[in-house]
Every structure is written in structure tokens, then in C-alpha cells.
Specification:
- It is built from 6 helices and no strands.
- It is mainly α.
- Helix 2 packs antiparallel against helix 3 and helix 3 (about 35-50) runs antiparallel to helix 5 (about 65-70).
- The model is unreliable at about 85-95 (pLDDT under 50).
Length: about 110
């Protein structure tokens, strides 16, 4: 059976299972500076395994999509004040600006769906 004939989700799951315990690949993923570098490493792993995954498929299929989101620190969905969800819970170790700059838009409040 050719692995390229499997649905995308099954090929991505096979890649994730192959990464479990792959020390060199996991170290390369940890050293990546952003999501694009992670995609390059994952594409290389996919081609070595014969999975035939494309960059678009990796970028848009969980859990790889979520790994890339986390590495880029960009939320695919923002609720509230146009702040990513991971920043809404606190400053995440970043100091808050003393005064709002002129470039910032006023804070929008969510009034509900009613």
C-alpha cells in the first residue's frame, strides 16, 4: 500500500507518530526560529518517510497547524480586543507600556451575541 494514497489526516498522524522518539528531528524542530523553519524540517521528514505531504497540508492540518501557531505565537482566532488568546491571560513576562501610544486603537469591548 502506498502511503501517499492515504487521507491527509492519516498521513499527518503517521508523521507525528514517527516523530515520537526521533531525537535528531525533535532537536531540529526545537532549534527552529519560526513556523516556516519548522515546516522545512517537517517536509524533509515527510519526504524521508514517503508520506508526500505538502507545505499547505502541514500548515492546515492539526496538530502540526497548532505547533506552527505556537512557534509563531499567533492565534488563528482572536476574541475580544484583538489580542491573541495567549496574551489575554496576562503579560506573559512582558512589561506593560506606561502610556498607550497614538498608534493604538481604543479598546473594544465584547457585548455578547444577544
Amino acid at each position: 500500500m502506498d502511503l501517499k494514497d492515504l487521507p491527509v489526516t492519516q498521513r499527518v498522524n503517521a508523521l507525528v507518530k514517527a516523530l515520537d522518539g526521533a531525537k535528531r528531528t525533535n532537536e531540529a524542530l526545537a532549534r527552529c526560529s519560526d513556523g516556516d523553519a519548522m515546516l522545512d524540517v517537517l517536509l524533509d521528514a515527510s519526504s524521508r518517510l514517503g508520506l508526500g505531504l505538502t507545505r499547505w497540508e502541514l500548515e492546515n492540518t492539526p496538530p502540526i497547524r497548532d505547533w506552527i501557531w505556537w512557534k509563531n505565537k499567533e492565534a488563528p482566532l482572536t476574541i475580544g480586543d484583538s489580542k491573541p488568546r495567549y496574551q489575554q491571560d496576562g503579560g506573559q513576562g512582558r512589561p506593560r507600556p506606561e502610556s498607550p501610544s497614538d498608534d493604538e486603537t481604543p479598546r473594544r469591548r465584547f457585548l455578547g451575541l444577544f
